[in-house]
Design goal:
This protein is of the alpha+beta class and 180 residues long. Helices cover 19% and strands 27% of the residues. The protein has a 5-stranded mixed sheet. Strands 3-4-8-9 form a 4-stranded antiparallel sheet. The relative contact order is 0.20. The N terminus is likely disordered.
Length: 180
């Protein structure tokens, strides 16, 4: 699903990470993601092949806003059942985040700042162009405005009536755990 070569290519191109040669001491061939320079707003753990921690933090990747801005950034106009009328959202795609950490699994447990959590199928990331919205209508989202990250599924005005992904559209996202 998310193969290691593609993930390494994403990391190298986005973050300038170096790829260690065979026998150079790195078991997965990647030097990892850079450490966040700003406040950490998202932690990804579980079934990931690339993190930014040391040996004690293996399997953990932390991201600040700048790191997320360097992923596949998109702007969409969509409807949600939680807002009135069309809204403009901007942020990285969930698929690009999963690629950057070499995620391998079937589901994700997405957890909000307050501990609320939902299960999201990993396949949704690519199948539905899921966005990790950091901006809404041109402004960074604050905690009181469903930020700093809102998982947004692009939906038409007709689709919001069916509410197909309301459960998965978690706001105030702070953690993702990839599970098999």
């Amino acid at each position: 699903m998310y193969n290691m070569r593609l993930a390494l290519a994403v990391v190298v191109s986005l973050f300038g990470a170096s790829v260690a040669g065979a026998g150079a001491g790195s078991s997965d061939g990647a030097s990892g993601l850079p450490a966040p320079e700003g406040p950490v707003i998202l932690t990804v753990s579980g079934g990931i092949g690339i993190g930014n921690g040391n040996a004690n933090d293996a399997g953990v990747a932390t991201f600040d806003r700048s790191m997320l801005e360097n992923l596949d950034w998109r702007e969409i106009e969509t409807h949600t059942s939680f807002t009135t009328g069309p809204q403009r959202f901007a942020g990285p795609t969930l698929a690009s985040l999963l690629d950057a950490v070499a995620a391998e699994g079937e589901t994700m447990i997405a957890t909000a700042i307050n501990g609320y959590f939902v299960e999201i199928p990993v396949a949704h990331a690519a199948e539905h162009d899921v966005l990790l919205a950091l901006d809404m209508n041109g402004r960074p989202m604050r905690v009181r405005d469903k930020g700093p990250i809102w998982v947004v599924y692009p939906l038409s005005e007709q689709e919001i009536l069916e509410k197909p992904f309301d459960t998965e559209m978690i706001w105030q996202l702070s953690r993702i755990e990839v599970q098999s």
